[in-house]
Amino acid sequence: MSHAVQAHAPFSHVPLGPGRWITLGPPLGRGSLATVFRGRTEGPYGVSHAVAAKVFDAVASDDRDLAFHVIRRATTRAAMVRHPNVAQMFDLGVECGQTVRTGELVEGITLSALMDKLRSAGVRVSLDLAVFIALEVAEGLAAARRAVDQDGYALQVVHGDLSMRDVLLSIAGEVKVTDFELAEARQISTDVRSLRSVARRCASMSPEVACGEGATAESDVFSVGLILHEMLVGPRFSPRVDGREALGMARDGILEMTGMRSFPDELSAIMVRAMAVDPRDRYADAGQMAFELRRLSLGLGVGDERLFLRELLSKDVEEITVPRTQPAPGRAPPSRRSESELRLSRRDDLPAAARTEPGDTDRPLGFAADDLLDESDLLEDEAPW
Questions:
Q1: How far apart are the first and last CA of the chain?
Q2: Domains plus CATH for the chain?
Q3: What is the pLDDT of residue 215?
Q4: pTM score, two decimals?
């Protein structure tokens, strides 16, 4: 399956300083804020590196300096984060009034694109893999929170706009978080706000952020909880919910009941705490949530899911067997609660009956490599917001 990205480089080379430049290659995808190209940095002595070159959309001249300042600050702070679960940031350049940022080139697919493919095929994510991905995301956020600058001062980086689109899955089985602290740049750089795009953004927002408050470590925790919930249960909002309804539900912390599934009590407790409406009732930061997810993984006997993720990104559906979720040796099987018994946020105000959507099965995971590794899936098309 091929998805051509309708994007063209506005220029082919971007200077980075004396004797250094970026050469833009084919587009990898188009997002609400920028277009990502496969790029190559070159220096005066012939040293070259493959990179992901993000070309930010042009903004009005009155906002250009502010937009660059926001992007530069976010990039400078993110470049201080060194962790296997964070996509590394490298450099900035400016050409024709547009900012270009280089970062680690992750060969693979976004979690959002993977979930879309799985849903279209009627495939559900195994508990093992969902917990592993959520744990890796939480570890990346925790590392950003602990990052220090060159003088040793704590940066306390938060993501602020985390969604499945910001989670990259590499063909090596890695999970990497990208695009830290770009929410303000998105607001400056775009002025078209469709109901569809509002609904998509609200699907990953904590109640306080949806109400206009600044992002915090607790709001990042809420977003990780939402990602875990969506992988195991389904999207936060059904397709019937428009942008206005989604914004209201996001402000109230409501999650629609889109499916029925049984979870260990420990996992249910983690999701309930992560997605509490009041930030004071959540984990204080993603590091605390990662600790609980790690303990859950050990208790369930979950192995290194990088191997399975790597297989998932390289084989066909029918060739993959979902890994068993079994207790560790000497442990009793975990007690289980159905998804309908979870009281997540304020959704007890919703109808009590939950139903399984047509085609919502427990088939094995997997996709042909030529489907999964299409480069256009690195960033999905979306209406600007």
A1: 28
A2: 13-103 (3.30.200.20), 108-378 (1.10.510.10)
A3: 92
A4: 0.81
